[in-house]
Amino acid sequence: xxxxxxxxxxxxxxxxxxxxxxxxxxxxxxxxxxxxxxxxxxxxxxxxxxxxxxxxxxxxxxxxxxxxxxxxxxxxxxxxxxxxxxxxxxxxxxxxxxxxxxxxxxxxxxxxxxxxxxxxxxxxxxxxxxxxxxxxxxxxxxxxxxxxxxxxxxxxxxxxxxxxxxxxxxxxxxxxxxxxxxxxxxxxxxxxxxxxxxxxxxxxxxxxxxxxxxxxxxxxxxxxxxxxxxxxxxxxxxxxxxxxxxxxxxxxxxxxxxxxxxxxxxxxxxxxxxxxxxxxxxxxxxxxxxxxxxxxxxxxxxxxxxxxxxxxxxxxxxxxxxxxxxxxxxxxxxxxxxxxxxxxxxxxxxxxxxxxxxxxxxxxxxxxxxxxxxxxxxxxxxxxxxxxxxxxxxxxxxxxxxx
Length: 403
Known about the structure:
Elements: E1 2-3, E2 6-7, H1 8-14, H2 16-30, H3 32-35, H4 39-63, H5 73-85, H6 89-108, H7 116-153, H8 155-165, H9 169-176, E3 184-191, H10 195-199, H11 204-225, E4 230-234, E5 237-243, H12 256-267, E6 271-278, H13 283-300, E7 305-307, H14 313-318, H15 323-330, H16 339-350, H17 355-362, H18 366-380, H19 387-402
Parallel strand pairs: 6-7
Antiparallel strand pairs: 1-2, 3-5, 3-6, 4-5
Helix pairs in contact: 1-4, 1-6, 2-4, 2-6, 4-6, 5-7, 6-7, 7-8, 11-12, 15-19, 16-18, 17-18
């Protein structure tokens, strides 16, 4: 079909990039909820779905047929994501209407009296497509909201609450008819803020950015487990319970470290996690231990990633309240007035007693490292060059961070 001698479908496809920019700008200007969305979402998901709709309209016009279910899959997925993020359905449908109207204006531009029949047919095609879009988007949105609501108030929510509080399982099963798994992988996650949360800390965009981050983490967890997992997550992190017939592998493809790496990539933020497999009765204790480990990782300055108790045994034990803890911390008290010496000591141990690597990390000469190590020895009576002292120094550094 042509208007003013121009093939409409080809003209639309050629104008997709520019028209996408115009549609997105119009949405930001006319719909406050879209203006409050994170920039990442506007330039990513929203721009992508606008482009997809424009190309779909060109296909519908060119082939003179309605859209297929497969061609509407991306719109359904997008609607479900917006539902999880709390974007109102009326705003989403208005956005589709705005985009469709602008697409129609572009297609009919320059129409001549002789193009009336073509204009009317294109109008009929676009009305059918608009009806299909409204139906597909509304049904996907409402289905997603129903699932979310049922998760919040239904059996899954009750099951997680029972596991975390240690409710007797026979009583829970009798009360709800639900039976817990034989064991669970318990995980505590600490999620760093997304840049979009920091850019709009007081605006609604920060809330949307947080929900997007949480949704992406949940998607990665569900994909790993092959089923929706039990989660209690907010913007800063929370607790995850995955049914696990056997403890999942820690390393390698399909392992837990790879899961956290994937969740980190998907969410776009650093994630610190601790994990432990436990039978249902032991879930509360495992969750509490995981939370302690995540807190310990933050206090000791370790990098984000996945940890287990075996990775932090010394730090964990030294973080227990005891008289010995204070005594260990006091071993390095003479260095408190010499922060350059303390920093050199920490770096020297972190880099495996490599003086050249330490010097490079601190931007000093290797001889300066040697000089500072000697000063540490004179002030504290401890030297990392002596194996017996090295154990005390390592424990004292951990104790200093724990008290």
